Amino acid sequence: MDQEQIQALGVELYDHLSNRTTMAPLTERFADITVEDAYHISRAFLDARLTQGGERLIGKKIGVTSPAVQEMLGVYQPDFGFLTDAMLCQGSVDTASLIAPRAEAEIAFRMARPLKGPGVTPQDVLDATESVMACFEIVDSRVRDWQIRIQDTVADNASCGVFVLGEARSPEGLNLAELEAVVTKNGEPLSRGLGSSVQGAPENAVAWLVNTLGEFGIPFEAGEIVLSGSLVPLAPAVKGDVFHMSAAGLGEAEVRFQ
User: Fold this and answer.
1) pLDDT tens across 82-130, in order?
2) In the sheet where 92-93 sits, what is the strand order?
3) Is the pTM of this model over 0.85?
4) Does residue 177 carry a pLDDT above 80?
5) For the chain, what is the radius of gyration of the CA atoms?
């Protein structure tokens, strides 16, 4: 794809985000679209959010890291997107601001210092982490009916909607791979998942991302938030739903859909 087309598609995605409307899958419209094209479109989408929307970049997210999510979406490799301040919610989510939200429980990282790949190990990630938090990412898709292939979700900022963070705690002494997230929906048991479901351990997924971004000259910055991928299958959400996540040693997170 040429740069003009990439920029136009980034702006188109931003328009659908702003208007809460959906578009036909890019993989239907452009048979030869590559994953590399999709990442360029994702950056153009982000640029529109920053310039037209006045949003501020605050972190990154990893998607499609666990087998459960890969099977649900039919996408079998990890991807990544960007987080802005407009995506961070304080416990409640305006359902009307989203299209087709789905909740997923994750472990979030906040970086204490910059980190840049390649060559970053999972231990390097832990050493550079200020805190970890229970987290809900609310994924959403500007692509019609979630009919996505890897190129579609990549272009659409890894299908990111908004996110909610729990209380921060130090990662020291925690075995993130062995943490078990217990998720309820409206007070009823919904799902359970181990940290090891995310690429063997959440810090492995974060190391993959910092090394992947390092190939493009993009570092993690001090203070940035990184969402490491879902521990459980995605669950559709509607107005009135309340999701709660707890993990012994990590803490809790809750999101309410209003």
Assistant:
1) 999 999 999 999 999 999 999 999 999 999 999 999 999 999 999 999 9
2) 92-93, 251-257, 242-247, 180-185, 188-194
3) yes
4) yes
5) 17
d(CA 35, CA 37): 5
What single letter denotes the amino acid at residue 149? R
Using CA atoms, how far apart are residues 142 and 100, in angstroms rounded to an integer?
9
d(CA 11, CA 222): 29
Q: How is domain 58-257 classified at the architecture level of CATH?
A: Alpha-Beta Complex (3.90)
Tell me how far CA of residue 251 lies from CA of 128, 169, 171, 211, in angstroms: 21, 8, 12, 28
How is residue 113 annotated by DSSP? Answer: S
Distance CA 103, CA 107 (A): 13
45: Cβ–Cβ under 8 A, 6 or more apart, which residues?
Answer: 9, 10, 13, 14, 17, 155, 156, 157
* Both structure tokens of 68: 């459960």
Give me the amino acid identity at 18: S
DSSP result, 172-198: TT--GGG-EEEEEETTEEEEEEEGGGT
Residue ranges of the alpha helices (H) in the chain?
3-19, 26-29, 35-51, 67-73, 122-127, 150-155, 202-214
d(CA 67, CA 210): 21
Q: Is the dihedral of CA 231, 232, 238, 244 positive or negative?
A: negative
Q: How far apart are CA 12 and CA 25, in angstroms?
A: 12
Q: What are phi and psi of 91, to 5 degrees?
A: 95, -30
Strand partners, 79: 63
